Amino acid sequence: MTRLRGLGLVLLVLAGTVRADGIEWTDLSPAQRRVLAAQEQRWERLPAERQEQLAALAERWLEMSPRERSALRQRVQRWSALDDGRRAVLRERFRALERLSSAQRERVIDVYRRFSALPPEQRAELRQRFADLPPEQRRQLRERLLGR
Questions:
Q1: Cβ 54 vs Cβ 39: under 8 Å
Q2: Contact, 55 vs 7, CB < 8 A?
Q3: Do 72 and 12 sit in the same domain of this protein?
Q4: Which terminus, N or C, of the chain has the lesser number of Cβ atoms within 10 Å?
Q5: How far is CA 111 from CA 93, 128, 136, 139, in A?
Q6: pLDDT tens, 7-55?
Q7: Do 52 and 12 touch, CB atoms closer than 8 A?
Q8: What are the beta bridge partners of residue 22?
Q9: Which domain holds residue 52?
Q10: What pLDDT score was predicted for residue 15?
Q11: CA–CA separation, 85 vs 32, rounded Å?
């Protein structure tokens, strides 16, 4: 996904549509304008960086299959339902994941996928066992997970 976003921005730059003052609404493709129609009235007031992000996101949206779009809608709905505190925690976890080496990140993602595939009862049991560990043992377990 990051490559697609980068490619989209490179294409916008090569097309000459990214300027210091942002992207003109009329410089968006008709398909991008359809996707971003809700933003049309405030487009000119958006910061240039946000316009670029939205243009790239619209391009990604257009490349998604109906199934991918549905999954994205569900993720956005779940995110929107979270309170600000929970969002802050998740943003920090994401930043921490980004700071890991690619090998560590892959390991964390693999463990998460395996954990997610477990039956709900087993996941709840593992969560409780982890919560019951002393802080030092939890830290050691995290470090072992990361291969440190």
A1: yes
A2: no
A3: yes
A4: N
A5: 15, 17, 20, 16
A6: 455 555 555 444 467 899 999 999 999 999 999 999 999 999 999 999 9
A7: yes
A8: 19
A9: 2-76
A10: 52
A11: 33
* Residue 64, token pair as written in the block: 């998604």
- The two structure tokens encoding residue 101: 């080496």
Same domain, 90 and 45: no
- CA distances, 98 to each of 9, 106, 133, 145 (Å): 21, 11, 26, 16
| CA dist., res. 52 & res. 85, Å (int) | 28
CA-CA distance, 142 to 118, in Å (whole number)?
A: 19
Stated pTM of the model: 0.57
Strand positions, DSSP E, 25-128: none
Specify the amino acid at residue 41: Q
Position 17 scores a pLDDT of: 46
Written as six digits, the tokens of 89 are 């925690």
- The per-residue pLDDT for range 97-129, each reduced to its tens digit, is 899 999 989 998 999 999 999 999 999 999 999
Closest CA to 100 of 63, 141, 148: 148
